[in-house]
Design goal:
The protein is an all-alpha fold and 496 residues long. Helix content is 75%, strand content 1%. It is globular and about 65 Å long.
């Protein structure tokens, strides 16, 4: 019961701060991009909290339980992507729009804006939905509540938290959330290793492949984990929108350095703690299927099980509050971004260009509620969080990232090339994900067979998007200078 009280107090604190910030929200800039005045410290915290979500807490931890340190290939994609984002951050802040589809229309055309909006909404609602699933699992472990009811409670609280002040409350609270997340996992890790009997006992209990680079599955699945997170990070709308919240271009670049350090530390320690948990639960029947194999859904709860049942009370409270912070800080961001897309890229762009600031804010608040309901329905469409994460990552990585990168890095890309690339990424991701969900094992392509699992869909989807981008751009007339010049301005300004 003490765990429930601790998390309850934490959630009340979130609501109180959000309500206080909500009274100061007056304009579209306040609600969407926190007034464009966020300092480097706050930006680092909110960027780390955005990235470390249920995909890390559940999907990454579950894979670490089943396959060991090779699970870090999923995280490594983000680490490498961040190194590239370091060079893009000042350019994004200099353009100073509100959303990634804003950028897509500036470089390509209105159709690219709409297609980019569709891809982001599909992906981000999937990500928001598995935050709800994670919250439901957390409440189930602590109270025995049916996970569906737990998901509904979490959904309602996230909506309440988000609609009050939008990005302003998210940024204000994420420095606190970041401290909780970091402290929780760093304290839990050595205690979990001790509970597993120390390193010597751990290496005896778990398979040898848990401690190899590519694990038990090999190179191709490892790269299949690396690419979706790598490509997602490069096209991640929530990160770019937060760059647009920075007070200037230099602040955005400095924040990327802090984000790299924070994400590497937290994700490595999270996966290590899950492996130490595997050392304690490896022989537990609750983690096994009736056939004796490891159950994917159950292994995804290893960190919560450790916190509630195997760690000292104080350490357990810190890890569970950190888990709640991970869930809520990610869920509100991934409702905030698609609601901004619908408001900015559809309503304000095509339906009501002259809407007042008050109308825009209230429209976005209504979209947050609507999208949360859709995300709640999506929770029933997948069997485990890892599949949901790979689908969402691939949707953004294949549909948005190639065109977005080309906008900043390739002058020869054309409006038609960008538009067709986005469309190809959306369609191919949905087609191959549908085949995977239908249970089609392999697709015979003549020279080789393509496994149809979520671990592999980035290969055909990414190939289709990049190929169409290059081929169509080379077959259509080059863009006029006014299209590419804003993305190739002189130097990397250091002030706004």
């Amino acid at each position: 019961m003490i765990y429930v009280w601790a998390i309850g107090i934490y959630l009340l604190f979130l609501i109180f701060v959000s309500a206080s910030r909500g009274r100061k929200v007056k304009t579209q800039d306040d609600f969407m991009v926190a007034g464009r005045g966020v300092t480097a410290t706050f930006l680092v915290a909110t960027l780390v909290c955005t990235w470390i979500g249920s995909g890390s807490l559940f999907a990454g931890a579950g894979r670490a339980f089943r396959h060991g340190f090779s699970a870090l290939w999923m995280s490594a994609g983000a680490w490498v992507g961040l190194a590239i984002v370091y060079y893009l951050a000042p350019r994004v802040r200099r353009i100073a729009q509100y959303t990634v589809p804003d950028i897509l229309e500036t470089r390509y055309n209105a159709a690219s804006r709409l297609l980019g909006t569709v891809a982001i909404i599909i992906a981000y609602l999937t990500i928001a939905s598995y935050q709800f699933i994670g919250g439901g699992r957390l409440l189930q472990i602590l109270t025995g509540l049916d996970p569906v009811y737990g998901q509904a409670i979490v959904c309602g609280l996230v909506v309440l938290y988000t609609i009050m002040a939008g990005m302003s409350s998210i940024v204000a609270l994420d420095i606190f959330n970041g401290i909780l997340i970091t402290a929780g996992v760093i304290i839990a890790a050595p205690l979990a290793l001790k509970g597993a009997g120390g390193w010597g006992q751990l290496t005896t209990t778990l398979p040898e492949t848990h401690f190899t680079i590519f694990g038990s599955l090999g190179v191709v699945p490892a790269v299949g984990l690396f690419l979706p997170t790598f490509l997602l990070l490069l096209g991640e709308s929530s990160i770019y929108q937060k760059f647009m919240s920075a007070k200037d271009a230099l602040t955005a670049r400095r924040a990327v350095i802090g984000m790299i350090i924070g994400v590497v530390i937290v994700e490595t320690v999270l996966d290590a703690t899950a492996i130490f948990g595997a050392g304690q639960f490896w022989g537990d029947a609750a983690y096994r299927t009736v056939e004796g194999g490891l159950d994917r859904a159950t292994t995804e709860t290893v960190l919560l099980d450790l916190a509630a049942n195997r760690l000292p009370v104080i350490a357990g409270i810190l890890l569970l509050i950190g888990a709640a912070a991970i869930i809520f800080s990610t869920a509100n961001t991934f409702l905030m971004i698609p609601s901004t897309n619908l408001t900015r890229d559809v309503y304000q762009r095509f339906i009501n260009p002259n809407a007042s600031q008050k109308t825009i804010i209230w429209f976005q608040r209504s979209m947050i509620v609507l999208l949360a309901l859709v995300a709640f329905v999506v929770t029933s469409r997948f069997e485990n969080i890892l599949d949901m994460a790979l689908y969402a990552y691939t949707m953004v990585g294949a549909a948005v990232t190639p065109a977005l990168l080309a906008a900043f890095l390739w002058k020869r890309v054309t409006p038609m090339g960008g538009m067709i690339s986005i469309a190809s990424g959306i369609v191919s991701t949905m087609v191959f994900a549908g085949l995977a969900q239908a249970g089609v094992g392999h697709l015979n392509l003549g020279l080789f067979e393509l496994p149809l699992e979520y671990d592999y869909i980035i290969y055909p989807a990414g190939f289709a998007s990049f190929l169409s981008l290059i081929v169509v751009s080379l077959l259509t007339p080059p863009s006029p200078e006014e299209k590419w010049r804003p993305f190739w301005g002189s130097g990397e300004e250091t002030s706004g």
